[in-house]
Amino acid sequence: MTSPPRVSRRHALALTAGALFATTPLPRSAALATAGARVPSRGFNLPGWLDRDDGSAPGAATLEKLRQAGFETIRLPVNADLVSSGDPATLRRIQNGIRDLAGLGFSVLLDMHPSGELVAAFRSDPGAAGTRVLQAWTALRVVVADLPADWVYPELLNEPPMERTNWLALRERIAATLRASCPLHTLVWGPARFQGIWEIADTPPLADDNQIAAVHYYAPMAFTHQCESWDTSPLARIANLPFPATRETPVVGQVLAKLRAAGDEEAAKLVEDELSAPWTEARIASDFADVARWSATHGCPVMLNEFGVLNFCVDAESRASWVRAVRKAAEANHVAWTYWELDQGFGFIRSRQSVEGFDGSMIAALLGS
């Protein structure tokens, strides 16, 4: 007679929690599955909640409407500086928030999203900054360990602000810290230093058999970040660029003429440089084909966990066209996705507290055919 397989306490807890959450009425898509684990997709980012002491929680009715619309995943930023002390109330707040989301049927990407202060610390003292991240995960892994492995995905560090070699070493240390308590959870990581889609090419996967590589896509920045308002970048002075576009597109010529008439050669040159190749669906598809080749070569699934267009001064049709093109290129190349973000400058609903003000054209671009 064959003895039953031995199951660890942690594995048993994960199975029990998974069975509990599996009663949700809306099944998750299995379209982006791998031999190792399902890759969460069809999602959005939700900053401004658990990454701040005074963060704003989304309304339950809003979340339910988003789930009914077809969204399946939420990428949830957390702040290393808030969790590194291991404050029980902070950790409990994060755990309860994740449980609420999972109870509605959402997979959760738990994204260690460094504050501006921590990013600056990486520039001045990378070793000390890395230690702060490790301390944060040492505290937060207790939360992750008690949540089901097929619903919660820890992301090691958003846009690692350091050189590639330094990041690869820190990445392994963070992974080991998590694995000490979370042997079954899928680890998510991105390349240094911007997590850009182009940075994955020369980045090896983790030495781990349960992982997802994550990239960001905002190309061309002159289009996706036009009229940005948080620094003195020339992007802040660029407006009304369309998608798709070439240097010969009449509206582009008008934008360039206006910039040069104002003496803004810096912004005009940025637009021209980014238009050295046309902004088209074909260009986007080519970028994602490159990612698919990396994934196949390394046997590592990839997800696009940030992409988006600011809604400050772009026409709605161009915005939706770019979002649809990126989403379709990702899916065609078996790349999962989460949009940046829900209800702020890049968002597609007016308020996380209301079921009104949903942008139908953007939701169709994300979830349509």
UniProtKB/TrEMBL annotation:
Stored InterPro entries: GH (IPR017853), Glyco_hydro_5 (IPR001547), Glycosyl_hydrolase_5 (IPR050386), TAT_signal (IPR006311)
Query: What keywords sit in the KW lines?
Result: Cell membrane, Cell wall biogenesis/degradation, Glycoprotein, Glycosidase, Hydrolase, Membrane, Signal, Signal-anchor, Transmembrane, Transmembrane helix
Please report the record's description of how this protein sits within the membrane. Single-pass type II membrane protein
Q: One GO BP annotation here?
A: cell wall organization
Q: Looking at the keywords, is Hydrolase present?
A: yes
Q: Where is the signal peptide?
A: 1-30
Domain Glycoside hydrolase family residues, every copy:
36-343
The record's listing under SUPFAM superfamilies reads: (Trans)glycosidases (SSF51445)
Any GO CC annotation of this UniProt entry: plasma membrane
Gene Ontology MF terms in the entry: beta-glucosidase activity
Q: Where in the cell is it found?
A: Cell membrane
Summarizing the function annotation, the protein's role is: Glucosidase involved in the degradation of cellulosic biomass. Active on lichenan.
Query: Per the similarity annotation, which family is this?
Result: Belongs to the glycosyl hydrolase 5 (cellulase A) family.
PANTHER family per the record?
A: GLUCAN 1,3-BETA-GLUCOSIDASE 2, GLUCAN ENDO-1,6-BETA-GLUCOSIDASE B
Can you name this protein? Exo-1,3-beta-glucanase D
